[in-house]
Amino acid sequence: MTAVGLELLPRSTVLTPGPGRKRSADELKAIAEEASRRFDDRGLYGNHTEIDPAEVLAWAGETFGDALAVACSMANTVVPEMTAPHAPGVDVLFLDTGYHFSETVGVRDALAATPGLNVVDVRSPASIAEHEAVLGDRPFETDPELCCRLRKVEPLDAALSGYEAWITGVRRVDTDHRAGAGIVEWDAKHGMVKINPLVAWTLERVHNYADEHGCLLNPLLDDGYPSIGCEPCTHRVEAGADPRSGRWAGSSKTECGIHL
Ligand code: SF4
Questions:
Q1: Assessment of whether the complete model's pTM goes beyond 0.90
Q2: pLDDT tens across 224-247, in order?
Q3: Which of 19, 41, 211, 224 is the S-S candidate for 236 at Cβ 3.0 to 4.6 Å?
Q4: What is the torsional sign of CA 3, 7, 12, 15?
C-alpha cells in the first residue's frame, strides 16, 4: 500500500462524539493511579477474583458519569449489562467494521433494544467499497494490520476522544500481551482511564455469568467460535484448543491493535 493510495481514503480523525472531557490528562491519570491502588493493589495481596466487578463499575459510574463508555465486541453482552445499573444510559461502542458475522450484528441489534444502554456504531468514514478500492479486494489477507488500523484502531481512537474513561472486556488469559492487565489502568495512548472489570475472569466464568443473569451470548460461541472477531479473520477451533487460536489463524497476528 502506497502513501498515495492511503491519501485517497477518508480517514477517521479525532472527534468528540461523546460528551467531551471535563478533566485534564493529569487529573485523569491521578484518578487512574488512585483507583489502581484501591483495586489492583488489593488484588495483588489477595485474590483478584475476590474483587467484585460491580464494585469497580459502581466506582466508574460515580466517577465519570456520562464521560464513560463501554467497548463491546458483541461476543457477549456481560460487560455492558453489568455496567448499565451503575451508569444508566451509558454509551456502548461497537466497532462496526463492515466485516462482521450476521450473528454479531444480531447481538448488536438486540443489545440496542435493551433499556439503559445506548449502542453507538463506531465506523470508518470509508465504506467497504472505498476501503477495498484502495487496499484490494481482500485487505484482511494482504495487509491485516492496515485493515485493522483503518477499520478498528483509528475509528476507536476518534470515538474515545470524547470520553474520560472506557470499560473493556479484556481478560488476562486472552493473550500473552494482556497477561499483565490491571483492573484500572492509565491508558497513555488515549490519555484516559481504562477499566477492565473482568480482568481476572476465565471465559467459562463470563459465560456462566451470562447464563445466570440472562445476558446475550453470540450464537457463534456454540458453533465452534470461542473468540469472535470479523468474519474473514475468525475461524472455528477444535474443542479444547486456545480460544483465540481461530483469530488471524495461520499468522503471527494476535491483536487487532485497540488494546496495544
Ligand atoms: Fe480487517 Fe480482519 Fe482486522 Fe476485521 S479483523 S478489521 S477484517 S483485518
A1: yes
A2: 998 899 999 999 988 888 877 888
A3: 224
A4: positive
